[in-house]
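Q: How would the structure tokens look for this protein?
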Amino acid sequence: MSSSSLPQPPPPPPPKQTIGIQYIAAVSRLPPLPRPIYLTFVPDEEIGGVDGMGAFAASSAFPPLRVGMALDEGLPTPASHVRVFTGERQPWWVSLRVSGTPGHGATLPSTTAVGRLGAALAAVAAHRSAEAAKLAAGTPLGATVGVNVVYMRAGVVNDAVPAGFVMNMIPSSAEAGMDVRVPPTVDAAAVEATILGWLSAACVGGADAALPGGGGQPPLFEWTTVCEGVSFRYTHKVDVPIVSPLEPAANDFAGAFVDAMAGAGVAWREDIFPAATDARFLRERGVPVFGMSVMTATPELLHTHDERLGVAAVAEGVRVENFGADDLRIRDLFQSIRPRRDDVELLRRRDQQFGGGEQSPCRVQGLDRSEVGRCQLDAGLIDDGADLSAEQPERTIDR
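A: Here is the predicted structure in token form.
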């Protein structure tokens, strides 16, 4: 029997799923903390997240969580360092529609819809080549204004013929869609002017024929005229140019995060995520978000065949993302920041709910008395200066 006929093990899960697996494994090993940690598994991230994290962050259930910091997905990297994403490129989806002279395929009209569309797409291709050159020169993908043509539509449909289109008729209209990605550090107005330049190339007479103000701020989904026979619309346009600062002076969590990464011996580099993630819904609400996937020495096969993650990379991710195991302790991160009054009150009520007994958040099996006391002290449940080696009566906290 050949080896190929033997049962083969299932392929490893792609990185998107293993991120959640890593965090579940990491959180399960955490020591008691004075602040809660929430793991969110929400739908629709791949199609914009509006009905997933967007709906959750906008709901009445989100504010009571009082989120201080969030960790989101990152990307695999063949390098030895981890990329920490503090912002993301914003997706702008643009549709272009042009019209031209229809006619018989044996004629040569001076202006055709497909010809005008081709002129615009040539301008798009020129921009794309320039950005690709920057990428080849070392500019990170997240710092480029990316564009890809994702659909084209033209022709007179006829399902009765082999091609599916009437082959001797020149169509009167043509359409294309573009996925534009805008870094948060780039002037949005300048990008809008660039897009208008692409579209204006389809105008008879070139950009000089474009109507003044054609590239302003048209309403989403509404067709806006660029020039006679050329119009466009945005079908999706995210405008959240927010970067979560990682400087220690920016906020307590950023400083603790940087210190914890250094304590784990993790080499990292700040970057802008090249695609859209759910992080923007939190950044819009003032929550600092750092995207990080500990997947070093791993090829970046985003949405391609055989997207995979090695066992060693998964284990390293659990070690780092644990923030409470041998090398990196999220307990230090949390305990370096005094809990807010509302967090203390929440923990006090939870402690009372469990009757202050063995199931209390500060009385977890395996902790010795001094560790229980340290937990109570950090939560503000006992007075500073108390003897942590002795059993302490927990005090109530006035709001």
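Residues 113-136 form the longest helix (24 residues).

The chain has a mean pLDDT of 77.

Upvote if useful.
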